[in-house]
Amino acid sequence: MTIRRPVSIAVLIACHNRKSLTVRLLSQLIDAWHGYGDFRLSIFLVDDKSSDGTPEEVISFFPSVKLIAGSGSLFWNRGMVLAFQTAQAARQDWDYYLLLNDDLDLDADALATVIRDCHTHNAKTPTIMVGWVRGPDGIVSYGGFASHDKCRPMSLHRVYPAHNETVPADTFNANFVVLPAPLMEALGGLDASFHHAYGDIDLGLRAIARGATILVHPRCVGITSAHPKESQPSSAVARFMQRHGTMPRKPDGFRQYAIFMWRHGCRWMFPLYAANYAFKASCRMIHQRLKAQAR
């Protein structure tokens, strides 16, 4: 589909002390922007008090980027909330919001391809387009998820892309996600109740509940490494505690977990969710102590 007028896109990014990665992504974005005349990017970057020279580098080399200073305690989700609020305050007539992670090594033509296809789908129905990201091994590291059990909203299954066609999903990692502006604004963006985890998954589930469609694009948009997993301990007890102590790390705690589960789970099961959280927290604490003793 040929876009008849420039599509206006607010790009939202949060960063902290990853100067080389942040600068790389900004360079790639601006190159993509200059390479295509059918869309217009406005980049809103929240820097959460980086001490590695990221703000100075952005100011010097990317004067068109709207740099927003964070408090130093925003973490990813609340950084993205601030970026969204700043974009809204600019009072531009945005067509889309593009959520990006700054550690993405963006493929050259991915931006235009995904946005054009998203624009085509949104001519029919409100559609969120997820660009999947590959790891160094070429396998999907971030993208869309399917949710098969209302009573287990955190039991998500990876949605794998199909060749030359989109695949439906129920939510997403926000490493590369294009959302139509009216939908994003109706949802209120990411929820500031969450610090770091939960926010993007929550946003996708809320969009589905509102009647939107989420599609995983067949095109891989770039490469990024999934966060490394902890090594397996030798002790059987320690392995048990590690496995059952898996839970979002700080700064998100029980309050954020409770909000997420109350909103997306079966409310009659909430006492079980709370007990499950307490069990996982205990396992994690014991696992950390066993690790410390093993050193």
In short:
By secondary structure, the protein is of the alpha/beta class. The chain has helices at about 20-35, 55-60, 75-90, 110-120, 180-185, 200-210, 235-245, 255-265, 270-295; strands at about 5-15, 40-45, 65-70, 95-100, 105, 125-135, 140, 145, 155-160, 165-170, 170, 175-180, 215-225.
Structure description:
The longest helix has 25 residues, at 270-294. α2 links the parallel β2 and β3 (66-69). It is globular, with a radius of gyration of 20 Å. The chain has 9 helices and 13 strands. The chain has helices at residues 19-35, 54-61, 75-89, 110-122, 181-187, 199-209, 236-244, 254-264, 270-294, and strands spanning 7-15, 39-47, 66-69, 96-101, 105-106, 127-134, 140-142, 144-147, 156-159, 167-169, 171-172, 176-180, 213-223. It is of the alpha/beta class. The strands form 2 sheets. Strands 1, 2, 3, 4, 5, 6, 7, 10, 12 and 13 form a 10-stranded mixed beta sheet that branches. α7 crosses α9 and α8 runs antiparallel to α9.
Class from helix and strand fractions: alpha/beta
Note the run of SSEs as H and E: EHEHEHEEHEEEEEEEHHEHHH
User: Low-confidence spans: pLDDT under 50, at least 5 residues?
Assistant: 228-247
The CATH topology of the largest domain is given as: Spore Coat Polysaccharide Biosynthesis Protein SpsA, Chain A
Given this structure, which CATH class of the largest domain is correct? Answer: Alpha Beta
Q: Terminal Cα separation, in Å? A: 59 Å
Overall helicity: 25-40%
CATH architecture call of the largest domain:
Alpha-Beta Complex
> What does the largest sheet look like?
10 strands, mixed
> Taking Cα atoms only, what radius of gyration do you get, to the nearest Å?
20 Å
Domains (count): 2
The whole-number mean of residue pLDDT values reads 88
Q: Tally of extended strands?
A: 13
Number of helices: 9
